[in-house]
Write a structure and sequence with these properties.
By secondary structure, this protein is an alpha/beta fold. The protein is built from six helices and five strands; from the N terminus they run αβαβαβαβαβα.
């Protein structure tokens, strides 16, 4: 009986963890290592930096597009983006990117990855920066 419970627990845990990496109608949260893996395996992903322009100028992920989450026109700016594209959203600590991906989901973006860590952690993980 104990073995059966262990097997069922393992299958449930495995099933939930494998769903965590899928995107599509979900806000998928990633740590720095997972971000690097996603970027290395998906050349079509749009990297969206939601920090301020000043933070962006101090350094950003290679190829990132900057749209300031704290800007009053954030929603107007994201409305110009392709809602069908896949986006990786990051900021300084993971807070603004989490809020930004929620706003994006409310605006019909379905393929979103949220970096739960900030720029410094992503840079330390070996992700290419400018």
């Amino acid at each position: 009986m104990s073995n059966l419970i262990n097997v069922i627990s393992f299958l449930l845990l495995f099933g939930f963890s494998s769903c965590q990496q899928e995107t599509g109608s979900a806000n998928v949260n990633l740590n720095a290592i997972e971000v690097k893996q996603v970027l290395d395996s998906n050349q079509d992903i749009v990297v969206l930096d939601v920090r301020t322009p000043g933070e962006f100028q101090e350094g950003h992920l290679d190829g990132a597009v900057n749209i300031d989450y704290t800007s009053p026109d954030f929603e107007q700016e994201i409305a110009k983006l392709d809602t069908a594209a896949t986006y990786l959203v990051y900021c300084k600590s993971g807070n603004r990117s989490d809020r930004a991906t929620s706003v994006m989901m409310n605006n019909n973006f379905n393929n979103l990855y949220n970096a739960t860590v900030g720029f410094d952690a992503l840079k330390s993980a070996g992700i290419q920066t400018k």
